[in-house]
Design a protein that fits this description.
two-stranded antiparallel sheet; about 70 residues; alpha+beta; globular
Length: about 70
Amino acid sequence: MQTRCYRCGRSFHIKKEEIVFALEALEESEGIHYDVRCPSCRHTNRVSIDQLRKGAPRSEESSEDSKQD
């Protein structure tokens, strides 16, 4: 998932494993955003749970369901 730093404007990538971890942590804590640090300026950027869900990898179950249709 690509995102852009709100401070310096640099675009950077969030790995799929980190997205899965963030979604699990947010569901447990009932959070609404995940904090990601910019690799360039180290500024903390908030990524909403909705944006994380859009960037999350598809589960194998949903891909199997679509194959059966």
